[in-house]
Amino acid sequence: MKNINIHNGIILIPDFNGFTEFVFNTKLYTGQYIVTQLLSTLIDANREYFEISEIEGDAILFYRYDANPSYKKISKLLRNMQHAFNEKVKELSEILNTAIDLSLKFIVTFGKFSQYKIGNFKKLYGAIVVEAHQLLKNDFAKQPSYVLFSNSFLDNTNDFENDLNGQLYLPEVGVIQYFEKLKEHV
Questions:
Q1: How wide is the angle at C-alpha 60 spanned by C-alphas 24 and 133, nearest 5°?
Q2: Rounded to the nearest 10 degrees, how much is the dihedral formed by the CA atoms of 71, 83, 51, 22?
């Protein structure tokens, strides 16, 4: 059976660091409000570049069919999303007079995936989707705010800049870029 719905593309997952502690230490209504505001901020900062497959608690599963992804374009978009997230955390902390100890990590990977429909839901399917979720649970990152670009993404982009400032190269996985270090060099 041949599936014509299989395409190359990018999987992007922004995910909150500190979410479990946040949920247990924040009143239900307040926590729900904060998470809704932060997820909405990420969706707005995306500027409709990526499609949304689903929202999973504190993470968004974004995708984009794209045979030739641009590292520079994705990096710029992620810096904008990170900035918008940080500004919203600051704003909400002031408005609600509470500390919001959440940071943001991104997983960016590339490969073949398909989409299927169950009722009103569209679901992504493929090894690359599983890989993206596995990369969320990594022990590589030493700082909370980062982007992990998988080797599959880096191998399929023609404009990757290997700048060791703010980057950690992991041969079996890809490259981690820390936002704090990128700020110093941008």
A1: 85
A2: 120
Q: Is 72 helix (H, G, I), strand (E, B) or coil?
A: helix
Strand pairing class (146-150; 103-118): parallel
The pair of three-digit structure tokens given for residue 88, joined into one six-digit string: 């919203």
Domains of the chain: 7-13+28-154 (3.30.70.1230)
Instruction: Report the range of poorest mean pLDDT among 71-75, 117-121, 127-131, 164-168.
Output: 164-168
Tell me what percent of the chain is helix, strand and coil, each rounded to the nearest 5: 40, 30, 30
Q: Are 99 and 1 in contact (CB under 8 A)?
A: no
Nearest Cα residue to 55 out of 36, 74, 81: 36
DSSP conformational letter for 40: H
pLDDT in tens, 44-73: 999 999 999 999 889 999 999 998 999 999
Q: How far apart are the first and last CA of the chain?
A: 49
Contact (CB, 8 A) for 111 and 154: no
Question: What's at 69, amino acid-wise?
Answer: P
Which residues touch 137 (CB under 8 Å, ≥6 apart)? none
